[in-house]
Amino acid sequence: MKKLKIKKAVFPVAGMGTRFLPATKANPKEMLPVVDKPLIQYAVEEAIAAGITELIFVTSNSKRAIEDHFDSNYELEVKLETQQKYALLQTVRDILPANIRCSYVRQHDPLGLGHAIACAQHIVGEEAFVVLLADDLIDSGSANCLQEMITIYQQTSASVVAVQAVQAADVAKYGIVAVAEGWQGCGEIFDIVEKPEPASAPSKLAAVGRYLLTPGIFSSLAQVSAGKGGEIQLTDAIALLLAQEKVYGYQFPGIRYDCGNKMGYLKATIAYALKHPEIADQMKEYLSQFSTENEIIT
Q1: With 60 as the cut, is the pLDDT of residue 296 above it?
Q2: Closest CA to 246 of 179, 174, 148
């Protein structure tokens, strides 16, 4: 049986990042660095490692820095080469492999995640594709979350949603999925509800920032009515898609850092610093020292 290939990834990056103001007044939240890479680069690297070759960025008029980051910078490269800083030069050149293509499309109105994905329809076409939210930094070790989702798609020809168990108090922040009893980390989804009250939530499994979607999602998005704030919710479109096609959930291993909020971003920065080859030892020493001094102070 020939494996179904996934080539295209959509990155919705048009959000305003208000939770990080004033840092995001002029700088896209997706460009906030975790140690020495911006959030968007971690998401792009995950996609490329999973075999994606076409990157589609859904942007706004304030996100030019993202396009610049993935473009070449001739002046910088010449300067690094002149200064014989060859390691840094290679780092800059390796941001995007030569075989990867980038496309950019504007989301002119902030009408939600579902609307952002619909903006990319003319580029995606009639192919299954993946969606990555850079806010969700997923460290799943050697098990690439997106690659595992693609494997499930190759076995089922169905859409796949990454899910994570959350605390009961947090279910009202997410799209929550309904699954069969005896859930073992992967299986068919029977319903998905956007931000339910804890008492009525179908489970504690929340859809988080990785989706693999068949092209049928676009007809579902076209049928979705705008919800709170006038936004088109992807969750509502997936609920409609369930009436036409099977959709699977995948509970990935590892840790997800919600970098859309300050605490999640800081946790990610510390965690990635502690395993960075250049600064890990210094970071451990500093945290140990800080902890000791803090105990003395308190």
Answers
A1: no
A2: 179
pLDDT tens digit sequence for 170-197: 999 899 999 988 888 899 999 999 888 8
The residues of the chain that CATH labels 3.90.550.10 are 8-260
298 — pLDDT class (breaks 50, 70, 90): very low
Identify the burial level of 278 via C-beta atoms within 10 angstroms of its C-beta, where 0-12 means exposed, 13-18 middle and 19 or more buried.
exposed
Instruction: Give residue-wise pLDDT tens across range 87-120.
Output: 999 998 889 998 999 999 999 888 899 999 999 9
Find how far residue 228's CA is from the centre of its chain.
Answer: 23
Return all residues near 42 (Cβ < 8 A) that are at least 6 apart: 34, 134, 137
Across the range 112-130, mean pLDDT stands at: 95
Task: Give the C-alpha separation, 49 to 28, whole Å.
Answer: 24
* Nearest by Cα to 175 from 153, 202, 145, 150: 202
Q: Partners of 118 in the beta sheet? A: none
Q: Write out the DSSP string of 7-52.
A: -EEEEE-----GGGTTTTSSS-GGG-EETTEEHHHHHHHHHHHTT-
Phi, psi (degrees; rounded to nearest 5) at 279: -125, 0
Nearest to 159 by CA among 226, 93, 73, 221: 221
What is the token pair recorded at 98?
């030569």
- What CATH number does the domain located at 8-260 have? 3.90.550.10
Mean pLDDT of the chain: 91
Beta strands in 80-147 (DSSP E): 101-106, 129-132, 136-139
The angle that helices 262-273 and 280-297 make with each other, rounded to 10 degrees, is 120
State the Cα angle at 162 between 20 and 15, rounded to 5°: 25
pTM across the whole model: 0.92
Q: What distance in Å separates the CA atoms of residue 107 and residue 116, rounded to the nearest whole number?
A: 6
